Amino acid sequence: MPADQITILAILLATVALFLWGRWRHDMVAGASLLACVLTGLVGAGEAFIGFGHPAVVTVACVLVLSRGLQTSGAIDVLTRVALPKQAGPMLAIASLTGLAALLSAFMNNVGALALLMPVAIQIARKQSLAPGQVLMPLAFGSILGGMTTLIGTPPNLIVSGFRAESGAGAFAMFDFAPVGLAVAAAGVLLIVLGGWKLVPVRKDAAAQGFDTGLYLTEVRIRDGARIDGLRIREVEALLDEHGAQVVGMVQSEFRVHAPHPGRRVRSGDILVLEAEADTLGTVLSSLGLALEEAIDSNAEDLDDDDGSKVREDATDADTASPPRAAVGGKRGAGRRQPSSVGGAAARRAADADIAADIDGKVDPDEEGDEDDDARTPRSDIVLQELAVLPGAALVGRTASDLSLRSRYSINLLALSREGQRSMQRLRSQAIRAGDLLLLQGTPESIAEFATHHGGVPLAERDLRIPDGRKALTAAAVMLLSIAAAALGVLPAAVAFALGVLASMVLRTVQPRDVYEAIDWPVIVLLAALIPVAGAMESTGTAGLIARFLFTTVGQGHAVVGLVLILVVTMTLSDLMNNAATAAVMCPIAIGAAATLGVSADPFLMAVAVGASCAFLTPIGHQNNTLILGPGGFRFGDYWRLGLPVQLLVIAVAVPMLLTVWPLVPIG
Question: Could you tell me which of 2, 63, 110, 551 has the fewest CB atoms within 10 Å of its CB?
Fold first, then answer.
């Protein structure tokens, strides 16, 4: 064995050992492996970092950005409601998601299918109280399994078809892969759904930020045509139960109603006081057709009480329910004086117009009466951030009206959380106390300035998605067009997704400031560093040497044994190197083996196609495994626990199907 082959095998074994050890982060190990190859001369210094420009790396980065656009625009909320059954338990939710991933992957790039559904999976995990990885790994495996069912489902199928065409037998047709692929995919999905997902190690979400801050009290306005318009309170609460929220009060016409009767109907223009976690507010707004109501910072004219609205209690239930505490509002127009009454259709329409304008990306910092539109802040600079109020801070004892947040700082106060207490006052007149948590909207600089001057501590930024139907449709269209361009061969996948990212930035479905934050850079470094290492395995002939050695020593000329070996060796290599590279290495070996045995090459080529698409043991064999590494909080050695049973099942199902659909026909 030549020295370069011995060297690459030693580096590969050391790399795998370090991955399994888990002491060093995966990108550090990958970087060390790459540098070892450079120092030993297996990879040229000028080619060491060529992996960062590899289409697979660019594709992974771009789909992460496009996935962020689907999340922040609210498109994922719509997809979740349409595609997944309501009131589903963990098994049914995982079954629906995994099956949908397999179906989509048959007709689109499986990386794109995973990108579409990753945010949905994370939402399901939170709703079902599961670790993110328990949903993400079944999703990734389902998308990989579905890709083997059609010609365009995954790159290895296209490579196998190309080798068949070059051999003179003609290319495979679109659905030639379906008989074997469907059987394998169905068996794999069933295994995952019927308990396989429980084998996934429970890991903390490595990308998770923030903390449990308790419940916020939020005021929301019912839009015209909202889903709950005309429903009774008990029916609204049944819908809110799905999101862990509840109604604790309402403002109807000019009256504040504490503990509204379950039989009371809600109408367009009414304001509901909801109790919910900050992370669920966006979902509630999107699913029920609601809009955030505003905490006005100008001095509103009082009506019958100090919170700017008349108060009326329902005699039937006022004695049994506690009054609501501080509440939230949306936006009505910065620095403009607003009527304190919520009555009047014209006033409501004007307020809603201002709300829509502000949410769409502009915050007017000007003083009352100033209509200058030039001094507005683009939405790309707007964040949602929590602020903790320190003891003795200047904020203590003051209200939103006193602080004039919008006119002085261009900040919106969206919510207030005070654990264990509720107040009868509206948010704008609620006196702030030490220990309160304020949910603010504004630029990071303005929030930091406000916190410095008034004694608050900025905490984690919140990803509260304000639903925007237009942007949701735009984000979905950009993703689908990118996938279509890649799947139909109009553009290479990397170019198609890169154009999608550019379009998302131009159309503001992904804010430019969020693009680089959306990319999991350790995963990108891992993939980019190992691509040259895999190339060294191929260029030194090590991969082909391993495959031929196993075939000649174990197969011993038996066609069926040789077919099984081709499948197993392909699966093994695919776990360690890019699946497309694996297919390219194994196809010549498969054709040569078939010629040596005097049988048709089709079953061997199909075995390569199946094996190259079954990388379930490591995070580096397939881009989809790599994509879930960070969000799932996985370690390198976590994949085999579910991946090994899936691969064994694939072998058990694929071999008889290959022999049935593609028999070992002797050729003369």
Answer: 2
